[in-house]
Amino acid sequence: MGLLFEDDLHDRLGTWPLAYIPYGGADFGEVLAAARAVGKGDDSAYFEAWNTAADRLMAEAQDALALGRRASARDLLFRASAFYATAYHPLYGAAVDRRLRAAHANQTRAFDQAMSLLEAQATPLSIPFERWWLPGYFIPAATRPMSLRPLIIFINGYDGTMSDVYLASVVAASQRGYHCMIFDGPGQGAMLVQGSAKMRPDWESVIDAVLNVALTLPVVDAKRIAVSGWSLGGHLALRTAACDPRIAACIADPGIWSMAGPLQDLGAQLGVEPHEMEDLSNVAPDVLELLDSAIDFDRTLTWKIKRRGFWVHGVDTLADYLNEISKFTLNGITHRITCPTLITQAENDPLAKSAEAVFEAVRGPKTLMPFEAADGAGDPCEMGNRSLLNRRVLDWVDEVFAY
């Protein structure tokens, strides 16, 4: 039994919208109602509960629009987009479930419609990157939309979408006076669901394309551009800061040295010697079999690795997955991170275990910002108290950019 949901995986995913309450993405009663509707049900019951709630919000939004009530419609649409995203997450997997496709399409439609109703008009983007076009948005500072302002580029991780990062981070940053950009990169959001491009370690090439578009916008202060990544995006942001001198500040939430850490920890729990897990691209067959059995035994691990991880990285076997994630490392490049860098470390986030090592290795001005369970912010990405994270991080950005 989790905080609200009977099933641990459902609780992990179904409590995300609690983080969006301060920013209009949900109310506690709505999340509680969804949890009660799911009860002891399976992933299909979970999907139906959230999808039904999202459909209801979507219908109410269209009624409000028909009556000319733009503010109500906008708020309802943002909630609907968040609820559709929450609905389909347990259905992740390379054989893409038709319900996931439909819910993602509805999420996108609701989010796009909501963005078109913002008072400070957001601009939809198609970012050219190699042979693809990455969908995204430029969201101007709510307080000074037409002024030359600093820009924060937000980077998602494994399973966050543009709806999620907008509600978790962008609303607060825009209200504080920052221009913002969000996008789906390879292995994320629409790029994942449509099967366009898998996740890749060389995120600097992705941000290069994003920056090239950002620097065409006349209201962006080219000397004050920050990248901010949450979850795996924290690792991707650090890599970007190491490789692109146009980045003037970096926020890693949390500081992740490599993707190998959690799998190496699992190996240690299973009694595997550290040297046997040192190189994940070359793990012995007997160790692979041991890991495989442990993952299959744990429903949440199965979802994280075999459903989400395999899909995001475009692989079919654990050996191939380990080989792919071995490429996501800061080895040999941390000394090149010279811009002001903020590294968060939530008390109970396993991905944050390497935050102190990252902090020690960064060469530029740096801040290690811990978040504690006593403040309700000790879980991954501080989802139990996201507004605390946003206040502290944006205060830091204010200071760095002398705003």
TrEMBL record:
GO MF: hydrolase activity
Protein name: Alpha/beta fold hydrolase
The entry's keywords: Hydrolase
A Pfam family annotated for this UniProt entry: Abhydrolase_6
Domain AB hydrolase-1: 152-354
Family: Belongs to the AB hydrolase superfamily. FUS2 hydrolase family.
Origin species: Segnochrobactrum spirostomi
Membrane spanning residue stretches: none
Superkingdom, natural source: Bacteria
